[in-house]
Automatic annotation (TrEMBL):
This is Glutamine synthetase. SMART domains: Gln-synt_C. It catalyses: L-glutamate + NH4(+) + ATP = L-glutamine + ADP + phosphate + H(+). It is an enzyme of class 6 (ligase). Keywords: ATP-binding, Cytoplasm, Ligase, Magnesium, Manganese, Metal-binding, Mitochondrion, Nucleotide-binding.
Length: 371
């Protein structure tokens, strides 16, 4: 099993230093999405006080030419604090700070999808859109081989691993437990976790979150997962189809409701939204992975609990459909629906913005409207 060299450094020695008092200073780790739209970057600054809100935090800058975000001749980019969390690695009073990225001219960077998402969310605030996202991921060694898999072969076929218990079924639970507790400490709205269908594949769920908070909380949960894996010397992959062949891919199923959908008779609003989504399938496929649908094409084959990428479908309790209405929602005639198309490496801001544009702002056609 290939692990990183850093993992062999003594954590006990490090702990001696982490227990030293830090006086009245606070470490704030600024986190941002890089130019790939998938990678996360971070750096830390010292503050003379404990920030209580976003307004307390100063803007900062970084070298965008080293993060695929600018040229070297004009490389300074701005970090604008957008959400604040407790730091589960350095502990209180230290903070994690999720930032938006602006270019030298104060316009949003190409992968800053939060800014338009926020604008769209503000337009439908009174409808109280709630989201819950189910983030699947695969644990890999530093050589890209799935954690716990035989070095020259494959584990037994899928079947015993989903929600499995036991050393021969659950691969890497320590990562999952550490991540779950770190998210709870940080204030991330994590609401559950389970082992997935493919061995070494897991899922955590974040939500329900209202509006823009969905994107903020999922990105920070991903950051925490990467940091936990770094400590253990292994890698978390959000690739939507990490192992080709007869193995499940990884998605980020997105559950969505509005106040109207959650109230008595809300099933009609749910069905209306699904009808609108059916007319705009290609727009959503493009929004649901960072490569405009190319990543998802490897996953959405119509097999392994997925729908076909070229066809739109919906059904009650159907995990082979684009949109699933949970059975209890069909019975109670109110609740939410699940969009099963988003890829594990999607940008949550793009996904939830697309849902709002189509379902609540009644947009049509292949391009988003400009507000």
């Amino acid at each position: 099993m290939a692990t990183s060299a850093s993992a062999s450094l003594s954590k006990a020695v490090k702990q001696q230093y982490m227990e030293l008092p830090q006086g009245d200073k606070v470490q704030a780790m600024y986190i941002w999405i890089d130019g790939t739209g998938e990678g996360l970057r971070c750096k830390t600054r010292t503050l003379d006080f404990e920030p209580k809100s976003i307004e307390d935090l100063p803007e900062w800058n970084f070298d965008g030419s080293s993060t695929y975000q600018s040229e070297g001749s004009n490389s300074d980019m701005y970090l604008v604090p957008s959400a604040i969390f407790r730091d589960p690695f350095r502990k209180d009073p230290n903070k994690l700070v999720l930032c938006e990225v602006l270019k030298y001219n104060r316009k949003p960077a190409e992968t800053n999808l939060r800014i338009t998402c926020k604008k769209v969310m503000d337009m439908v605030e009174e409808q109280h859109p709630w989201f819950g996202m189910e983030q699947e991921y695969t644990i890999l060694g530093t050589d890209g081989h799935p954690f716990g898999w035989p070095s020259n072969g494959f584990p037994g076929p899928q079947g015993p691993y989903y929600c499995g218990v036991g050393a021969d079924k659950a691969y890497g639970r320590d990562i999952v437990e550490a991540h779950y507790r770190a998210c709870l400490y940080a204030g991330v709205q994590i609401c559950g976790t389970n082992a997935e269908v493919m061995p070494a594949q897991w899922e955590f769920q974040v939500g329900p979150c209202e509006g823009i908070n969905m994107g903020d909380h999922l990105w920070v949960a991903r950051f925490i997962l990467h940091r936990v894996c770094e400590d253990f010397g292994i890698v978390a992959s959000f690739d939507p189809k990490p192992i080709p062949g007869n193995w499940n891919g990884a998605g980020c199923h997105t559950n969505f409701s509005t106040k109207e959908m959650r109230e008595d008779g809300g099933l009609k609003a749910i069905e209306d939204s699904i009808e609108k989504l059916g007319k705009r399938h290609q727009y959503h496929i493009r929004a649901y992975d960072p490569k405009g649908g190319l990543d998802n094409a490897r996953r959405l084959t119509g097999h392994h609990e997925t729908s076909n990428i070229d066809e739109f479908s919906a059904g009650v309790a159907n995990r082979g459909a684009s949109i699933r209405i949970p059975r209890n929602v069909g019975q109670e005639k109110k609740g939410y629906f699940e969009d099963r198309r988003p890829s594990a490496n999607c940008d949550p801001y793009a996904v939830i913005e697309a849902l709002i544009r189509t379902c609540l702002l009644n947009e049509e056609g292949d391009q988003p409207a400009d507000y």
